[in-house]
Amino acid sequence: MKGLKSNNVSKIKRSFVRFLNAYELKEYYMVLKHYKLAGKRVQVPMLISIIDERRKTKGLTDRFKGIVSVYALAKAEGVPFRCIFNHPMELIDFLVPNSYNWVPTPEELTESVWDVRFRIMNKQPPLQRLTKLFPLTKQVYVYAKVDYLDKINETYGQQYQWGELFNELFKPSQRLEDCLRTHLDSIGNTQYKACVFRFQNLLDDFKEYHFKPLPKADQQQLIEKNMRSLRQITEHSDVPILVTSDSETFLSEAKSLANVYTIPGRVVHIDNVADAENEVYMKSFLDFLMLSRAQHIYSMGTDIMYRTDFPAYAAKVNNVPFERILID
Hints:
The chain is an alpha/beta fold. The chain is built from eleven helices and eleven strands.
């Protein structure tokens, strides 16, 4: 009886959320909550990709998907694009504008409810939720964590490449570039391959949402199975192998192999750790950009491990060959 009541409550909640989304009431509420009726008016229409504490956006890859998609749409429509990314860290501490300046100035942002709108692009809403805004008349803040690039190319007759757009927007900050240079020098070779292992919390060392760890014996079996596959690659490679993972336990095992390089540092999921020092977040950006400079990237794992997009999108940055390997 208790379970039935809980299910009914969940259904009511889902129906309420669908109602709010259908009529964009949640987005209008955000405008009224965060802006002023008599606020400073700046009538410069633009698309603004936003990542802040008001909405959860999952991991770094999903944030990059949303940013690049909104930028591609702005570029296709010929309107200004800006990005506000200040949670759980300031993006500009790690990535700075490259050929396009996406950093807004306070003077160009409106404070008035009359000149701003929000769009929350959860899961897979149709691109039309954004395209129907054009011709743009307001500053539209977009929460997006979906890759719409193929749909944008199809809709606008473009041939945008994800990596080209990413590189137009971003280059490493000086601090991140210094860290990259240190690790590139340490790996001892400008040519290297990369292997990525994503365990989530299977090994009980990476707290992420509600994922449960395996029993200890099963954890050890999983480590050994992945190590055997990694060893096969290292033994047949004539260049170093960069190994990245969300598991410090596995990284500790991997670095014992000859020809393997790992990047030290604490591994976190940036949607679940909101108060860490920048040194902690640096690891995610280092992993991503080091992967993007590899010769070849392998995403490896068993059928119970997560099929992560992190290495797939790192590969897109510089068109690195990418391959998934399912470990039996």
